[in-house]
Design a protein that fits this description.
The protein is of the alpha/beta class. It is built from 13 helices and 20 strands. The strands form four sheets. It has a twelve-stranded mixed β-sheet. It has a three-stranded antiparallel β-sheet with strand order 3-7-20. Strands 5-10-11 form a three-stranded antiparallel β-sheet, with no helix packed on it. The radius of gyration is 24 Å and the shape is globular.
Length: 481
């Protein structure tokens, strides 16, 4: 299970285990003795492990070494190979910035005022500055001292919010971490993974977003003659126009490997996806499904994104145009990821949800920890926090239908924590399937918007929806015949 521990405060989640829970196992393929063949079906299995082991390097005198997605078969016997997500992407053994001894999670959560939170933030800023080891000039030192005394309104709003939630986050995280240490899931003394040097670059140039831009130049598709979904079969290569003009569906019990622009991607069983940008959402509407759960991870606008040019962002106005009301079933549970900017949190609660006829029910927090159970950043850090916010709400509408759908499910609690070791790949959020299970009926339709990976039982949409399904993020294990 991806939920390692469940307490009143929330859940300790194993993100890596969730990815590998479906299992990806190639089987039932035969070949002549000594041959090497490509198999496109990957059977899902529940016999999975939370960690991965790197496969031994294979060699062949008579042909090339097979890469990810290639099943190796010898002497007419079907070889079983399993794919696991690379463990080193979850090797967060130390905090990005170490907290002061008095601010360690284990020291308890002292009652502090907003003024003291500001002071803690300034101390953390000083540690971050001195950590670089770069000597400051007298002028820059004066500028830093002056800066520490002045907070802009956005920072003041963030500090005020933080002062209200810090005790809940600190104490809840401590309880979950203690359980994780008792069970052995977390370890106070950690060792570096031996495969750490083999990390695949975090950015794989698969050009998904660029492809979505190019798709705008494709000839218009006659919707009356065009299918709403493309069902994957044993053919791995998908024409780009087909992929971008309708939902791609894997309705089988096996995962599939698809090839797009020469790149291989794993598609889990019972999943579907649409690769497009926000201007090309019509194929998702043509799919004619109504969803009982919609998870949204918008590309929020902020200074860091603008500076890094890591990905394109959307304005608040553009986010409001997402047709959630047309996609949502009655009483749909809507979950939106929000950065720590209070401007965005207020926008979701005061403008976005009312615009979509969604009633805000709760704010949850995702808390990021190391394998040793420490916050990845000091809790009172000014610029970055070791947590992110989720805003949960339900679509308002037909009262009778809402009451029927709420039978046998628990009401959404006002505050919960999702504590996990974060993936080092940018914006790879923890799974919500298991933590939301008790608040929704089983086997409901689920949709993720702005997704960067796929999940069994979900429809996923985004202009990088296959990003973390790239074969280079997985390792291929050779199992016994």
């Amino acid at each position: 299970m991806s939920v390692v521990h469940r307490l009143t405060a929330g859940w300790l989640v194993d993100h890596l285990s969730f990815i590998n829970q479906c299992g990806y196992e190639i089987c039932d393929s035969f070949a002549y003795p000594g041959s090497v063949t490509l198999n496109t079906s990957v059977t899902s299995t529940r016999d999975c492990h939370a960690t991965s082991t790197f496969a031994a390097t294979s060699s062949s005198r008579d042909g090339p070494i097979p890469g990810p997605g290639d099943a190796i078969e010898r002497e007419g016997k079907p070889a079983k190979t399993r794919y696991l997500f690379r463990e080193e992407f979850f090797d967060v053994s130390k905090p990005h910035i170490a907290a002061a001894p008095e601010e360690q999670l284990w020291q308890g959560c002292p009652e502090v005022s907003l003024t003291e939170v500001k002071a803690n933030s300034n101390r953390e800023e000083h540690r971050e500055g001195t950590k670089s080891g770069v000597g400051d000039s007298v002028a820059s030192a004066r500028k830093k001292r002056k800066r520490k005394c002045v907070f802009n309104q956005g920072e003041l709003d963030a500090l005020e919010y933080h002062s209200k939630v810090r005790k809940l986050i600190w104490e809840g995280t401590l309880h979950l971490v203690q359980e994780g240490l008792k069970s052995g899931f977390l370890h106070r003394t950690t060792t570096e993974l031996s495969c750490r040097k083999n990390v695949v670059p975090g950015h794989i140039g698969c050009g998904l977003a660029e492809l979505c831009e190019m798709a705008k130049q494709f000839p218009a598709v006659n919707e009356s003659d065009h299918q709403a979904a493309h069902v994957l079969d044993d053919e791995t290569s998908i024409p780009e126009q087909d992929l971008l003009s309708c939902v791609t569906e894997n309705s089988s019990n096996c995962a599939k490997i698809v090839v797009l622009m020469g790149q291989k991607y794993l598609v889990p069983p019972k999943s579907s996806f649409l690769l497009s940008d926000i201007s090309c959402l019509q194929p998702l509407l043509n799919y004619k499904k109504k969803y009982d759960v919609i998870v949204i991870d918008p590309p929020w606008e902020n200074k860091s994104v603008k500076r890094s040019n890591r990905y394109s962002y959307l304005s608040s106005w553009q986010i409001k145009q997402i047709p959630v009301p047309a996609l949502a079933a009655p009483n749909c549970l809507v979950v939106t990821w929000v950065t720590n900017r209070q401007k965005h949190l207020r926008f979701v609660k005061d403008e976005l949800y009312p615009h979509w006829s969604v009633k805000t029910l709760a704010e949850w927090h995702w808390v990021k920890i190391t394998r040793a159970g420490e916050f990845v950043l000091p809790l009172d850090s000014l610029h970055k926090k070791p947590y992110e916010v989720l805003v949960l709400g339900r679509v308002q509408g037909n009262v009778k239908e809402a009451l029927r759908k709420s039978e046998d499910v628990l009401p959404i609690p006002e505050h919960k924590l999702i504590v996990s070791i974060p993936c080092s790949l940018h914006s790879h959020k923890p799974p919500l399937t298991a933590v939301l299970a008790e608040f929704i009926k089983p086997d409901v339709e689920r949709l993720e918007l702005f997704a960067r990976n796929l999940q069994p039982g979900w429809t996923s949409w985004g202009n990088e929806v296959l990003k973390f399904q790239h074969m280079e993020y997985f390792t291929l294990l050779q199992n016994e015949n």
